[in-house]
Design a protein that fits this description.
- The chain is mainly α and about 425 residues long.
- It has 16 helices and no strands.
- α1 packs antiparallel against α2, α6 crosses α16 and α7 crosses α13.
- The longest helix is centred in the last third of the chain and has 33 residues.
Length: about 425
């Protein structure tokens, strides 16, 4: 996987730095990069299917980036970093390559003209290198323990060790079951982000302000729209929104033409149908991106499949498309809550503590039920008993050494009775 992936990333930088004027040449360059990424699907195998799934989604994200930078816009002309003195297209070729490498790897656009909105900025008390590194070390330790909790829960829950549905243990445990895998993956993402932030700031490559938190505040997640727009990570936001119907060309060297001003004003005056169509498109492309993770898991299924089943016919389980239902249902949830919000406004209801509590419950219930189909299919293909799922967790070691408690047998016994 590493060779083709790195080759695709390197060629993407080179092709953009060449600033190709011909649409035909840009289309050929984009097709070549996407072909390299597609050829990497059957080679993506780490021994841990959850990691394979994430790497597959990463390949899909890189394909979107190739389309974004080669076909939809011209980053050398339309993007600018806050430290730039001259437009990027005026730089020598090698400097353009370094400029593009930094831009491509800044998925949330920190310090760039396309910086994502609703980021949780670094706390003022943590803007010195020492205090920032100390805070991120605390984050790394605490979120690693939370990831271990999710790992222990899935290893001890019989639902994740069989083909039983996550709904088979009742409504309460269903909410925990469907959240376990996404929670584990999000905690792993926070740990990786914290480790990279410590290395980058500690080595002096970046300032602390360049590494805001990967996720927003959970207090904002009282509607599905706010959950995706403010609470969940924004790493793929710009790649997905570029496929929307309206994308004006902008000059980053013109203060009146910045993205956060002109685009926001344009969106505010759009008809409701246009906004909703854009929302649907964003989730469709997000579903396609995550389905690339399904494709990687499908190759693992084919690799592990015995040539024939007992009946002598091929019986390979299909996992391609299991990621899609969750993302395709999100616009439906947003439509329902927008309708409920409009009704509430006409009834004279105002946003308050109780309204928000109802919103939290709504987001939790809708997310839990919309995740069922995807989690049921992916947990069987990912086999939670592989890789990270089979090892003894740090929490078990601490509980055994300090308190003499065997957590795994106790938790397994309780969950098997549910």
């Amino acid at each position: 996987m590493v060779v083709l992936f790195l080759a695709a990333r390197t060629l993407l930088v080179i092709f953009i730095a060449l600033n190709l004027k011909s649409v035909s040449w840009r289309l050929i360059a984009c097709s070549f990069i996407v072909s390299l990424l597609a050829a990497d699907f059957p080679l993506t195998c780490t021994g841990n299917r959850k990691v394979d799934y994430l790497l597959g989604a990463t390949l899909g994200s890189n394909a979107l980036q190739a389309v974004r930078f080669l076909l939809l816009l011209r980053p050398l002309e339309e993007y600018r970093h806050e430290a730039d003195k001259v437009p990027a297209y005026q730089l020598p070729f090698i400097q353009r390559c370094f400029w593009l490498f930094k831009m491509i790897n800044s998925q949330r656009g920190i310090g760039w003209s396309f910086q994502a909105r609703s980021l949780v900025l670094v706390d003022p008390h943590h803007r010195t290198r020492t205090s920032f590194i100390a805070s991120r070390l605390r984050w790394l330790f605490s979120h690693y323990l939370l990831m271990e909790v999710a790992t222990l829960y899935m290893r001890c829950n019989p639902v994740f060790l069989s083909t039983a549905s996550v709904t088979s243990q009742g409504n309460i445990l269903q909410c925990l079951n469907v959240a376990a895998i996404p929670f584990q993956l999000s905690e792993a993402l926070i740990c990786i982000h914290s480790a990279l932030a410590i290395l980058a700031v500690g080595a002096g490559f970046d300032e602390p302000q360049a590494w805001p938190q990967p996720f927003g505040h959970w207090k904002n997640a009282y509607t599905i729209r706010k959950f995706w727009g403010k609470t969940w990570h924004q790493f793929a936001r710009h790649d997905l929104t570029l496929f929307a119907p309206y994308r004006p060309k902008r000059n980053p060297w013109n203060p009146a033409g910045t993205e956060n001003s002109s685009v926001t004003k344009q969106v505010e005056h759009e008809p409701w149908a246009t906004k909703y169509r854009r929302l649907c498109q964003v989730f469709i492309y997000s579903a396609l991106m995550h389905c690339c993770g399904d494709i990687v898991l499908q190759f693992r299924e084919w690799a592990d499949f015995s040539p024939t089943s007992a009946s002598g016919t091929m019986d390979v389980p299909n996992v391609i498309g299991y990621s899609a239902p969750f993302f395709l249902l999100q616009p439906v949830g947003v439509l329902l809550e927008d309708a409920a919000t409009e009704v509430g406004k006409r009834m004279g209801l105002k946003e308050g503590t109780w309204i928000r509590r109802v919103g939290y419950a709504w987001v939790w219930v809708f997310t839990s039920f919309s995740l069922v189909i995807s989690v049921d299919g992916l947990k069987n293909a990912a086999r939670a008993g592989e890789g990270m799922g089979v090892r003894v967790t740090l929490i078990e070691i601490i509980a055994d050494c300090v308190f003499g408690v065997q957590l795994a047998p106790m938790l397994s016994s309780w969950l098997s009775r549910m």
